[in-house]
């Protein structure tokens, strides 16, 4: 009994010592386990590759193998991350310089131009295994939006919001993509829905309170309580979109996050008949000629690069399903390749096929099928090529398995698209994009194409400063919509060139001074203040003010500057005084090749 008491006394006195010993042993075992796990990870073949090992088991010669492969694969992954910027990953969609609340200034209104979200490819691609949806269904905004559409009804008859029920050009348009994981041809994907919901969330944080968009409708208006939502009209928010499902769905998704549910239900959507939102100033032969000459310069650059031509043919022949007229446009291949890169899919491979001798006089009946409406194409270089051909290629079994009309010496070789191939093609696309954006023809074409839209934007600016109820105007468009507008205003990123990422946004924020009656505006592109890049706002032409309590600054440009630019200086670079004269010129100004 005495021995037991002695042991308990010793144990009590050295309790801290025993705790230190146990803690040291636990830390040692934890460190040993971590080193063992890290060693196993490094020994996995291809563990450092973004896409994993190719299905054919081949490894790019430039990446090599052995001990140096993981480091080189990591470098390749960083390069692919640069290309994925045009895919607009959610981490890229953030609030930066977006205004809303400036000290001493009241936000009068916002005009926002967006590009639609992630879409399926314009050309038929071999997309087996590519998931264009939201990973794991973990996006709360997507779940909330889908739940709202499933559970709400728009009228007493019980019709639901899975389709747009209001009278007009968009009646019957679906509000969600047809499939959760699919990459439908030229259509918005669930990833695209997610992108625009997140953009709308940013716009809600920035503008909803400042513009008073969270206020309830006036209860004195009996129509709010008695009129079905399909007949309500909101004069605070004006929406324009082209008649494409992807732009329509993008607009509604963005506005769902921005607005309260009752104001979203009250929306009316107006159609723009042009991707340039040119309204009444659209027809312009001079603009088409400028673009044609710019494309000719691009073709000359491509023909000088035999190495790139070979890579373009290899990637195009591997990823595109059906190319009876050959592959001549790198941007068509880039668009198809982005379907892989934007959705973290493995780089595609192809197997050698047995040659099939064509039967004379017999034509593939599937070739006459046209399964995609032209209104679901972007006005990019790849799409202009499609329009010139007059139809999209059919999604036929023959196209899936390769062109059956290939001769024996034209049969595809066994192999895979490698990271070095991606580097070669995407680097060329970036180079051409940067050179095109820096050429004078690009700006001149942008001035002509966006004249109608800039006039429209200025007219709404004037409405906002004159006390009109309109507070928010949305233009939901395409990559070319923003290309024309940024080119005309001189907003060019040297690193991005004319590349416009999915879900890009360009905001015109209109402010009134609380101390005076002066009106100003600022321009924010993808969250970055670009007001100083505009010729008629640069330098001393703008007013620098404090943006927040941390001392950040914002540049405000007088409304008079853009009005004067539109009416006096707009056509000076074209040696003309009005739109008709500028578009009717026989020859464009001379310019050097790029």
TrEMBL record:
Transmembrane segments: 16-35
Stretches for region Disordered: 389-417
Entry keywords, A to Z: Hydrolase, Membrane, Transmembrane, Transmembrane helix
Catalytic activity: a phosphate monoester + H2O = an alcohol + phosphate; 3-O-[beta-D-GlcA-(1->3)-beta-D-Gal-(1->3)-beta-D-Gal-(1->4)-beta-D-2-O-P-Xyl]-L-seryl-[protein] + H2O = 3-O-(beta-D-GlcA-(1->3)-beta-D-Gal-(1->3)-beta-D-Gal-(1->4)-beta-D-Xyl)-L-seryl-[protein] + phosphate
Gene3D superfamilies cross-referenced by the UniProt entry: Phosphoglycerate mutase-like
GO molecular function list: acid phosphatase activity
Annotated family: Belongs to the histidine acid phosphatase family.
Name under which the protein is recorded: 2-phosphoxylose phosphatase 1
Organism of this sequence: Drosophila kikkawai (Fruit fly)
